[in-house]
Design goal:
Number of strands: 4
Helix content: 25-40%
CATH superfamily: NADH Oxidase
Order of helices and strands: HHEHHEHEHEH
Radius of gyration: 19 Å
CATH topology: NADH Oxidase
Oligomer: single chain
Strand order of the largest sheet: 1-2-4-3
Structural class: alpha+beta
Strand content: 5-15%
Length: 205
């Protein structure tokens, strides 16, 4: 099985190095107990003023009607591969604080923190998660009667990675492609924007 562990420049937790987002998912279900633990991990994410602005709609392939409804809220290109995943999740967010209805500029950030917790928990349990921004928010609002001040924002496919050798060529190429990341010097700055911090600039020894 292709793990694609990250080739890091500095030490990080093993679970973070192992996490990646496959396009191919095996025909194998995820237990309800495991799913509850994934959402429990999301539950304990940090959030601004403890607002916890995230919400999730979840569907498994065991319930074909619900799975089809959620799948229909993804853009067509994502539907093509995500339909093989055993679990689909639509991530929603409340964009205003409940206490005063003022805009919550941290809401989407906090949804991301919850997703990060879920990703770590999933990877630790041997699952993979592929996050998507390619959704149809208006369709989701219609299908699920999402109320005012809430918005569908992202989606996730959850399951076990498929063996890339058994995937169609297009998906095989994606899942076998090497992982790449910007160097720290391109996004960690000091002094002014765009000036790499001395902390991350490699020095001659």
């Amino acid at each position: 099985m292709n793990i694609k562990e990250a080739a890091t420049d500095h030490p990080i937790l093993q679970v973070l190095a192992e996490r990646w987002s496959p396009y191919g998912f095996a025909d194998r279900s995820v237990s309800e107990a495991d799913l509850r633990s994934l959402f429990e991990a999301a539950r304990w994410a940090a959030s601004s003023y403890n607002e916890q602005p995230w919400n999730y709609l979840v569907a498994t392939r065991e319930n074909s009607r619900e799975f089809g409804r959620l799948l229909s809220c993804l853009v067509e290109t994502n539907q093509a591969w995500a339909k093989a995943a055993p679990v689909l999740v639509l991530g929603g967010v409340r964009l205003q604080f409940t206490k005063n209805n003022q805009d919550n500029r941290a809401a989407v950030h906090d949804l991301g923190l919850a997703a990060g917790n879920l990703l770590v928990e999933a990877t630790t349990r041997g699952f993979s998660v592929h996050q998507m921004i390619g959704i149809l928010p208006d369709k989701a609002r219609e299908v699920y009667q999402i109320p005012e001040h809430f918005e569908a924002w992202t989606a996730m496919a959850i399951g076990y990675k498929a063996d890339p050798a058994k995937l169609p060529n297009a998906l095989k190429e994606r899942d076998l492609a090497p992982r790449q990341r910007k160097p720290l010097s391109e996004f960690v700055f000091t002094g002014q924007w765009g000036q790499p911090s001395p902390l991350v600039v490699k020095r001659d020894t």
